[in-house]
Amino acid sequence: MDFGRLITAMVTPFDESGQIDWDTTGRLIDYLIEEQQSDTLVVSGTTGESPTLTEEEKAELFRYAVERAAGRCKIIAGTGSNNTAHSIHLTKVAEDAGVDGVLLVAPYYNKPNQEGLYQHFKAIAESTKLPVMLYNVPGRTGINISVETTLRLAELDNVVATKDCASSDQLSLIIAAAPESFRVYSGDDSATLPTLAIGGYGIVSVASHIIGAKMKQLIQSYLNGDVKQAARLHAECYPVFKGLFECPHPVPNPVAVKYALGLRGLPVGGVRLPLVAASEAEASFISKLV
Questions:
Q1: Cys bridge to 161: 14, 166, 183, 198, which one at CB 3.0-4.6 A?
Q2: Residue 245 predicted with pLDDT over 90
Q3: Is 201 a catalytic residue?
Q4: Residue 47 annotated as lining a ligand binding site
């Protein structure tokens, strides 16, 4: 399974009553594929506010995204949690919906050891025929999937990739020792070019909602050997990378990118509690970025 170089972790549009706005969701999917050149969309990930989506909403979102994309891009379903049995169940729901793969975040809060992490991911992977992308984000989960555990998991037939937000040192070690078919994606927009430079495959992005087409140019320039052009595009993108990541301060969440989409003429509604709308100062900051 080739998920491509540019994967967008898609927001979930809501209407004024806080329910999923399906018409806007359809327009957003079209926009991310056609205008921002996403190769794959992740639905019901952290950026999609998965903690506040019901299981029924997730199942419908999986089905809707597959139908709307209609083969124009791949769809990855966020089915990971800190409950192994429930992640297995939701992964089966996603498989029935026809998605192309699943994204499994490290189990947060309960803090298993590395053997527990391995057994958690192994149990989910063995429950499905779908390709699995691991998701290591220590800043959110409070736990790091070690290099050794990632490499053990990479030996499983359908564990095909990782989205890793750890240090470039960790990514370098994984890239050097993983099977050739195992693909390493950064989860940090500002690390897109550095990750490619150390042998990574691509990016699972939030900024691609706004500057995806330019990010695609950056990636292609690097792959074509035009490192100078890639570096120039990185410099142009960098303020958006950092701005969306740092707002709202101190923890990034979908508030900023949802507000930015509205400024771009694609209003996707607000966020669900416990997230709150951008403050006046944050809105002003985002407006200057986009």
A1: 183
A2: no
A3: no
A4: yes
